[in-house]
Amino acid sequence: MRKAIFITGGGSGIGRATAQLFAARDWFVGVADVDAAGMAGTMALLPAGQASMHRMDVTDRGQWASALSDFVMVSGGRLDVLFNNAGIGSGGPLAQTDFAELDRVVAINFMGVLNGARIGHAYLAKTPGSCLLNTASASAIYGSSGLATYSATKFAVRALTEALDGEWFGDGIKVRAIVPSFIETPLLNASPVGSNETIRDRVTAAGLELTPVDQVAEAAWAAVHGETIHTYVGKTAHRMAVAARWLPGKLRKMGRRGVTRKTPA
């Protein structure tokens, strides 16, 4: 029987590329997103009859329950992989960020993942050899200055992945995370709070690489089929993983780069 994967954030970027790769390898694909136009664009790239579309907001538990119920009805009752991929980019000084923006980032980037894990567990447990796959970030390796809330949510995703890998072992469910650095996706077009520059501008100015999204999709495939809990994607992510272990002081200094200590009046 054809295996099945349900992908949040499937309307663009990593989600779209992963949907294309798994469909090309004869999986049935559920494309989920809050963006209907984006989902339609992804569906147009997939083989007819091999995918379903589910408009949903990952912060809404009722929509999660309905979407997964609808998906397994058309997938032959299978949920081999639940890919918690939906997320948003947000940056800027924490002290200048609106509380509404803080709530939005936490709700989508972490609570959305937690909702998917909690509601998806029952379906994953019924599918032998299933996997919960989460999208973390290189910002989950060492906290990124200027991305405090985003980093915190991705640290939480990383911790959840590790915790559930142990907790769900007895249910026969693997739990994995991909940990990408800067990926060529629309998220790079966002501007941090208080800045006229985009994230893409800052990454380019810093001389850091942008990893093609198809490499992330291949990493997602490897993570689902491998035994490594965290799969790092991109040179920056690999370098940060090494530095976090052996050179944490260097990362700490990098986080302070360009910051002038204020003298009390």
UniProtKB/TrEMBL annotation:
An MF annotation (GO) of this entry: oxidoreductase activity
InterPro entries membership: KR_dom, NAD(P)-bd_dom_sf, SDR_fam
SUPFAM superfamilies cross-referenced by the UniProt entry: NAD(P)-binding Rossmann-fold domains
Keyword annotations: Oxidoreductase
Signal peptide span: none
Domain Ketoreductase: 3-176
Keyword Acetylation: no
Family note: Belongs to the short-chain dehydrogenases/reductases (SDR) family.
PANTHER family noted in UniProt: 3-OXOACYL-(ACYL-CARRIER-PROTEIN) REDUCTASE (AFU_ORTHOLOGUE AFUA_6G11210), SHORT-CHAIN DEHYDROGENASE_REDUCTASE FAMILY PROTEIN
Protein name from the UniProt record: NAD(P)-dependent dehydrogenase (Short-subunit alcohol dehydrogenase family)
Organism in which the protein naturally occurs: Sphingobium boeckii
